[in-house]
Amino acid sequence: MNVFLTGGAGYVGSHCVRHLCDLGYGVTVLDDLSAGHRAAVDRRATLMEGALGDYDLIRCAFSEGNFNAVMHFAAFAEVGESVKRPLDYYRNNVAHTVSLLEAMRDHDIKSLVFSSTCATYGTPARVPITEDIAQLPINPYGRTKLAMEWALRDCADAWGLGATALRYFNAAGASADGTIGEDHDPESHLIPRVLQVALGQYDSIKIFGEDYPTEDGTCVRDYVHVEDLASAHAKAIETQQEGQFRYFNLGTGVGASVKSVIEAARNVTGHEIPAIATPRRPGDPPALYADPTKANTQLDWHPKYTNIDAIVETAWAWHQHHPKGYEK
Fold it and tell me: What does the pLDDT look like over 95-104, one tens digit per residue?
């Protein structure tokens, strides 16, 4: 099977590229390298340097590539940035993705795996979050992802697209061999920020709020290992049927608080990692964690990493060997 994969030089995308190559897939990556890294792309894959908005390039690739399926990772994904620059998010995450779907339709490619997000749920009425909870996103990022889920459902009905939306919770960790990992600029995710303190790149880590109605007063999130996310994408593409729209939560079903993540990093690294409590950030729900039963049963997907210490350990191996990230 030949797969066209957008955003394959990014964090989750690069791990998925490696997993597909390990399974014997032919993989072509489209990435403009504005946020991704050339060094993260498996050498067995073909890298096309270009933007999601380069419609002519994509159509040319589809004409020549004999692709069976598309995996779409090339979205803008920073919540705070989406609030400040909503039109950029609607242009990239919606308009450019609609053009990708048009190219798929015109070249009779009827299988798509779409990176969605738990941000489509907004502040959920209950946890753990099941797929039947109302999707009420509270920021432009979540709204653009939900808009595309609607579009995928409609395309399935209109021209037989087979599409799976995978609603990630908090992607975390790095490859088991420590060779590819998380490198954002700027870095906003908790685990790499904590590990950067352990490396001496920052003096302390901020805890945004200690007065939430959780066990230790800090926010609780579901951290799912990036290699487990990659395996879910492969299972989704292997089981996809034409004319079918599906959606799954990808999480461990176990929540970890901010303080427990920091403590796990202290255990793994052996460093003190000073933490400073600051006021809450607007819009942070107290707890977000998945009920992954649907993915467990319908995709036969079962995360290998369910312990936060084990997830942090893989991230630490990456950061120790790449303290400044990928070679620029």
Answer: 999 999 999 9
